[in-house]
Write a structure and sequence with these properties.
about 160 residues; mainly alpha; two-stranded antiparallel ribbon; about 55% helix
Length: about 160
């Protein structure tokens, strides 16, 4: 029986799957497919986010209030629905994520790097998600940006 373990919130450790891969020559695609089946579609987002994260232009202060503690990078277009819509339209299989993630990142450069903002976690990022939900639909991107700019204009 195959066991998959998660050691860290953002890193997937496929402990027995990886040792099984080296012992019986299971392809990396098969290991990824097993991880996706075990943990669900969220892992696909992690594979894409890990590849794109190094290029994020995360600010040193909250865009709204200027606070410089506990900052988070917010995409107006949520990565998960954006990725799943693209996969469906382009008929991409989850187990092939390593092959097509760079293509996705290139096609969505604006959504990943431009249509994003650095916000303080407690004052503004959580408030924004309190209004638009944990994973806002793609149709709310302009509304989120407008909300952020209104909050910025309210600052003294």
């Amino acid at each position: 029986m195959l066991y998959l373990a998660i050691a860290y919130p953002r890193k997937i450790i496929l402990d027995k799957a990886i040792s099984m891969r080296y012992n019986s020559f299971i392809s990396i695609k098969k290991v990824i497919k097993m991880a996706i089946e075990y943990k669900g579609q969220r892992d696909l987002v992690k594979f894409v986010r890990d590849a794109s994260k190094s290029k994020y232009d995360k600010g040193t202060e909250c865009y709204i209030c200027g606070d410089d503690e506990k900052l988070e990078f917010h995409h107006y277009n949520s990565l998960s629905p954006l990725l799943h819509r693209w996969m469906k339209l382009n008929r991409k299989a989850g187990e092939d994520v390593l092959e097509w993630r760079d293509e996705f990142i290139a096609e969505h450069h604006k959504e990943l790097y431009v249509d994003a903002v650095t916000l303080c976690k407690f004052h503004h990022h959580e408030r924004l998600h309190g209004i638009y939900g944990k994973s806002p639909s793609l149709g709310t991107a302009a509304k989120q940006e407008r909300w952020v700019n209104i909050q910025k204009d309210k600052q003294p």
